[in-house]
Amino acid sequence: MSDPIHQSSDFRRQRAVGVAGIAAAALVASVLWFGIDSLMSPLPGMESLGARMLLTLKCCCMAVLFCLVTGIEAVAHERLTSPAFDPLAGFETRRLRVNQRYLQNTLEQIIVFAASLFGLAAYSPDGSAMRAVVATTIVWIVARVAFWLGYHRSVALRGLGAPGMALSMIVLLYVAGRFGREIAGTVGSIVPAAVFVAIEVVLFWQTRPMKGVGSITPKR
Fold this sequence. Notes:
Blueprint: H1 4-39, H2 49-80, H3 94-122, H4 131-153, H5 162-206
């Protein structure tokens, strides 16, 4: 039986590595996003909503190709060249398990990303503003790759991909705020963020470690 004190110590160590990775990745992602948004030339012909939606669709296609399709291919190739060819045989390598989790996680996150990206494009009236859509797409793709590669190195380093999900949520909150302002002015722009923060607080409270879990006190 594994030592619970060792398990607790290992959890704290992994969590510390994960938090450090998230902080470093957030800094890199911020620099990359603002660099693209500031230095990229304005996109021509973006005054019409249809043109902006078409560009956003193309950005989503790039994200699907380089993040979702590559994950599908990684799993498919390993199944083709190993006993995992029979999914019911129960054969799994660590690499296959990581790739499967990456694929599932990406499938979940790409829905949030796509919704946020189309919403952002709807509120980006010209070619200069649409640079934010391109910047968001590039940073999200890079974050997915960082999550994947980091996960293969260690469980803690999958935190390198956290800025991708954070960026999608920030964009969604921006879109919700703009939409709320259209409906109810200043109050309407504040309410979505306030409600979301309240939900986050409840989730943090409800999922806090139970007493005795994560902090093992040795018996005297």
